[in-house]
Amino acid sequence: MSDSSIHRTHQAGTAQRATLLAGAFGAAFLCVPAQAQDHKDPDIIVIGQRDVNENAEPEAPYKAESSDGKFTDKVLDTPKTQTVIPKEVIEDIGANSFREIVRSTPGVTLGTGEGGNAFGDRIFIRGFEARNDVYIDGLRDPGVTSREIFAVEQIEVIKGPSAVFGGRGTTGGLVSLQSKRAQFGNDFVVAEGGVGTENYYRGTIDANYELSDAAAIRVNGLFHDADTPGRDYVSKLEDWGVSGEINYDFGAAKLTSITAYRDYKSSDYGDYDYNRADLLYRDPNTFRQFKTFTQELRLQGSAFGDMLDWLVGGYYANEKLETRDNLRFGNDYGTFPNCRI
User: Fold this and answer.
1) How far is CA 119 from CA 110, 175, 284, 326, in A?
2) For 224-258, what is each residue's pLDDT tens digit?
3) What are the backbone angles phi and psi of residue 48, rounded to the nearest 5°?
4) Contact 316/294 with Cβ under 8 angstroms?
5) Cβ atoms within 10 A of the Cβ of 179, count?
6) Cα–Cα nearest to 311, from 324, 321, 297
7) CA 135, CA 140: separation in Å to the nearest integer?
8) pLDDT score, position 11
9) CA 82 from centroid of its chain's CA atoms
10) Rounded CA gap, 241 and 140, in Å?
11) Which DSSP string corresponds to 234-277?
12) Exposed (0-12), middle (13-18) or buried (19+): which is 136, by Cβ within 10 Å?
């Protein structure tokens, strides 16, 4: 009996130790999640907003509609050939000027000095010159300038005769530029900059702020300074400008004020006879410069239960263009008397 008793006691002790050992392992496994939960890193939530295109769908920003209020239906249902270029496409191709945008648009070509005038944006739509068929926010832009797009939200190219929508001219079509609009409920500041060879420096800023439930302001600025690549003489471009828009919602009507100023200067001088002989050269003071100031006021609303849309406003533009081109004889000109005029 004693042997049997001892044997039973031994088994009981073994079972007790096994139970204690399993309990120890169980406690160890249970503690691991608790420690991990106590030392878990907090969730990082990044909240940011950028400007949105009011003409595009939020889920599909590349699917934009026309901003021209003269078209009463969607682009798909309008019997006109329209190319809508939203800001997303402009950012993707990295364009900095109006010429870079229209250069990549089918049916639109650029003039390169035909007729002795290479200054400004000279565009052709379906072979017809459309220099005077450029509109900004629905108003004709009469200036002959090199347009920047730092304050442009969307560009639309309408091809084919469009006098019904754009007024006189527009034989081959027209181009419409929409300015960046002040937005409600979306405050942001976007700054971009670039540095490159040939003394290239460029910076832009885009800021939007909601002043109140009825007023919002948006400001855009530009600074551009660069030399022309591949030239061993001075060929410099200096360009800066600022544009501001204020929207005030009266409820039944909306007031919009857009003020803009731009200063553009291109200095280009060097060898004018294009050979090794020093015959003729441009004076170092040769340059082309224009200064533009514009002011737009627009009051719009609806009446008779949204059956009638009305708009009244005014536009003022003041552009000053200065061109200085002086040619001088070089040191080798005297040895070529037959070249004298």
Assistant:
1) 12, 18, 19, 17
2) 998 877 666 667 889 999 999 999 999 889 999 99
3) -145, 150
4) yes
5) 20
6) 297
7) 4
8) 40
9) 20
10) 20
11) -EEEEEEEEEEEEEEE-SSEEEEEEEEEEEEEEEE-SBSS-SSS
12) buried
Distance CA 169, CA 94 (A): 32
How many other C-beta atoms lie within 10 A of the C-beta of residue 173?
A: 25
Cα 96–121–182 angle (5° rounding)? 50
Spatial distance between the Cα atoms of 195 and 197, rounded to a whole number of angstroms: 7
Q: What is the pLDDT of residues 12-23, one digit of tens each?
A: 344 344 433 344
CB-based contact 105:172 (threshold 8 Å):
no
Which residue in the block uniquely carries the two structure tokens 């934009």? 64
The Cβ of residue 281 has, within 10 Å, a number of other Cβ atoms equal to 19
The answer to whether 204 and 243 have CB atoms below 8 angstroms apart is no
Classify each residue of 221-235 as buried b or exposed e, where b means 16 or more C-beta atoms within 10 Å of its C-beta: bbbbebbeeeeeeeb
Between 34 and 336, the higher pLDDT residue? 336
* 92 Rama sector, left if φ>0, alpha if ψ -120 to 50, beta otherwise: alpha
Contact 175, 126 (CB under 8 A): no
